[in-house]
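hiii, so i know i said id send this last week but things got crazy w the move. better late than never?? heres the sequnce for the chain we talked about at the cafe, plus the structure i predicted for it. fair warning i was half asleep when i ran it
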Amino acid sequence: MHLNWQPSTDLTGPPILTSVDPAESDELGRLAAGRRVLEIGSAHGYSAVVMALAGAEHVTAVDNHSGGTWLGDTRTIMEGNLGAYGVADRVTIVQADSRDALAALDEQGERFGLIFIDGDHTRAGATADINGSLPLLEAGGVLAVHDYAETCCCPEVAPAVDAALGWLETRAAGTRPPQVVGTLWLKRL
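okay and structure toks below
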């Protein structure tokens, strides 16, 4: 499956450039409702807006916002989008490398009911984001990884998920298998 970046069409407000498709967006909103959410990789803030509008208790959005890419000044664009949708007070932007941010959040004792990973799409980066996130996921929480099985631009994400999280399938009987919605890999832990 190949995902294209395009302006959102499912929000009632200004379009936000995203590669999250409507089915994935609906699932993220459903999962975020009533939970503290950690998002790794924000770009223009589409998924943070979706999860905040769906009733997330709070969204912590980690992105280095390094700019210099075709996406432009992502921090400024994201801040504008959060303001346009009236959710700026429910989203905290953490502008940092995800490894540093995850370690700091762990040291602070932060825990989240939903962790959405859509950051570094290299195998090493996705693996680091998964491994750094797991200690932050509260019992019964959901881990969601975007671009699983995306074949054009992100072919290293699925092998990273499978390698880092294969142990989940060998745990005691009764664990639920992962679910995939579009390219959104989901596992309740």
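btw The chain has one domain: 17-188. thought thatd interest u
miss u guys!!
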